[in-house]
Every structure is written in structure tokens, then in C-alpha cells.
Design brief:
By secondary structure, the protein is mostly helical. The radius of gyration is 27 Å and the shape is rod-shaped. The N and C termini lie far apart (91 Å). It comes from Pseudonocardia humida. This is Secreted protein with PEP-CTERM sorting signal. Keywords: Membrane, Transmembrane, Transmembrane helix.
Length: 60
């Protein structure tokens, strides 16, 4: 009986470790992706102004 409990305990530890690693990697990649998206959005705003340039009336 103790062999079955030991096997179940080892299997539970292995599965828990794998799940923890998967969740940690998902959180890390989401953080990295959002930082990259923010950086690209900022550079996009710097390169391309949102409004038209100011020109006084009557000048071409």
C-alpha cells in the first residue's frame, strides 16, 4: 500500500511542477508581449503624428 501512495505522491509532484512551469511561462510571455506592444505603439506615435500639420489659411 505504501508503494502506491509513494507513486501517487511522486506523480502529483511531477504534474504540479509541470503545471506551475506552464503557467509561469504563460504569464512571462504575456508580460513580454505587452511590453513589446507598448513599445511599438509609442514608437508608432512618435513617427506618425495623429493630426495634420498646422498651416494658416490661404497658404498652399
Amino acid at each position: 500500500m505504501s508503494e502506491v501512495l509513494l507513486f501517487g505522491l511522486v506523480a502529483a509532484i511531477v504534474v504540479g511542477t509541470i503545471l506551475y512551469a506552464v503557467v509561469a511561462e504563460m504569464r512571462h510571455s504575456r508580460t513580454r508581449r505587452s511590453r513589446t506592444e507598448l513599445r511599438s505603439a509609442r514608437s508608432h506615435l512618435r513617427l506618425r503624428p495623429t493630426g495634420r500639420p498646422f498651416r494658416p489659411a490661404g497658404t498652399p
